[in-house]
């Protein structure tokens, strides 16, 4: 549930966002994951709307925020986010990002540290290439040869029964259809050169990260993802790490649990900010 859905035209293209809560309260900006749009955060925003001013934009190239300016880098997403926040006069803010959204949140904070009070990174992407190339090989191959892949599927369908929903052909078709819905994710993660991706990773820059950071890791993720999140947290001096139990995404408990962790983190950060302001005074 959101209070308002809005649209604004920026230099990078139209941007749509959902909003909930009182604009006089601390602002939290939610950045969705690689395979989502702003609707990912509706349950969490509903849980937090009484204490915070919550905003969830569609990242550039996702959801309704699609324009002729197709994002080709994380830096473009950061620039788009900066223009969005500046236009709405939102600063300083708390950033909450999931996977790709966490990559953008960290990159934004490294570039504009004075505009961010704290960051919550949930199963973050963009830390390192370790293990990434292994799981991306098939996807890169499919995306590099879409015509051949479609022809192969067509020929296979003519000779093989696909009544079994678990058949490899059915899974391949479903995977292709899924990828087709997220062209920006496909480009950022799988259709750039390794060097382009490596230059935007945050592992070597996190030592410069000054804002408080909470890394939340969903316990159902694979071992590589969990270990990477732990390394992510260890790279930042003011970082906390917590594993959270996965729940049914359609259950109210899913948004409630994440909202509790975010709120508790922000309260800890705010106590520290208040203490520092009193000492300065």
List descriptors.
eight-stranded mixed beta sheet, about 280 residues
* Radius of gyration based on Cα positions: 20 Å
What spatial form do the alpha-carbon principal axes imply? globular
Beta-strand percentage? 15-25%
Major sheet strand order: 1-2-4-3-5-6-7-8
Give the number of helices: 10
Order of helices and strands: EEEHEHEHEHHHHHEHEH
- Uncertain residue segments: 158-164
Largest sheet, strands/sense/barrel: 8 strands, mixed
Q: Average the pLDDT over all residues and give the rounded result.
A: 85
End-to-end C-alpha gap: 40 Å
Question: Which structural class is indicated by helix and strand composition?
Answer: alpha/beta
Q: Count all strands and give the number.
A: 8
Secondary structure: helix percent: 40-55%
Walk me through the structure.
- By secondary structure, the protein is an alpha/beta fold.
- It has helices spanning 42-48, 74-87, 100-111, 132-144, 146-159, 168-180, 183-190, 194-200, 223-234, 252-280; strands at 4-10, 13-20, 27-31, 53-57, 93-98, 116-122, 213-218, 239-244.
- It has ten helices and eight strands.
- It has an eight-stranded mixed β-sheet, sandwiched between helices.
- The protein is globular, with a radius of gyration of 20 Å.
Quick recap:
The chain is of the alpha/beta class and 281 residues long. Helix content is 46%, strand content 18%.
Question: How are the SSEs ordered, and which strands pair?
Answer:
Layout: E1 4-10, E2 13-20, E3 27-31, H1 42-48, E4 53-57, H2 74-87, E5 93-98, H3 100-111, E6 116-122, H4 132-144, H5 146-159, H6 168-180, H7 183-190, H8 194-200, E7 213-218, H9 223-234, E8 239-244, H10 252-280
Parallel strand pairs: 3-4, 3-5, 5-6, 6-7, 7-8
Antiparallel strand pairs: 1-2, 2-4
Helix pairs in contact: 1-10, 2-3
């Amino acid at each position: 549930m959101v209070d308002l859905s809005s649209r604004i035209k920026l230099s990078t293209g139209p941007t749509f966002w959902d909003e909930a809560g009182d604009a006089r309260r601390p602002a939290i900006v939610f950045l969705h994951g690689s395979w989502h749009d702003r609707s990912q955060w509706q349950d969490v925003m509903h849980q937090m709307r009484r204490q915070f001013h919550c905003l969830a934009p569609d990242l550039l190239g996702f959801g309704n925020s699609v324009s002729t300016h197709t994002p080709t880098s994380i830096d473009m997403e950061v620039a788009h986010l900066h223009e969005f926040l500046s236009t709405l006069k939102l600063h300083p803010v708390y950033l909450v990002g999931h996977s790709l959204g966490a990559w953008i949140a960290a990159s934004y904070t490294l570039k504009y540290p004075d505009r961010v009070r704290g960051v919550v990174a949930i199963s973050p992407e963009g830390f390192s290439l370790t293990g990434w190339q292994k799981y991306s090989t098939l996807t890169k191959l499919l995306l590099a040869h879409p015509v051949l892949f479609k022809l192969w599927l067509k020929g296979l369908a003519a000779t093989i029964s696909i009544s079994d929903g678990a058949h490899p052909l059915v899974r391949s078709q479903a995977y292709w259809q899924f990828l087709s819905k997220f062209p920006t994710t496909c480009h950022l993660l799988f259709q750039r050169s390794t060097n382009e991706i490596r230059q935007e990773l945050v592992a070597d820059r996190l030592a410069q990260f000054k804002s408080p950071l909470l890394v939340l890791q969903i316990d159902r993720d694979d071992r590589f993802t969990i270990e990477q999140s732990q390394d992510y947290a260890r790279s930042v001096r003011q970082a906390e790490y917590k594993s959270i139990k996965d729940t049914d995404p359609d259950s109210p408990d899913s948004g409630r649990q994440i909202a509790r962790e975010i709120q508790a983190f922000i309260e800890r950060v705010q106590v520290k900010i208040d203490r520092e302001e009193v000492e300065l005074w």
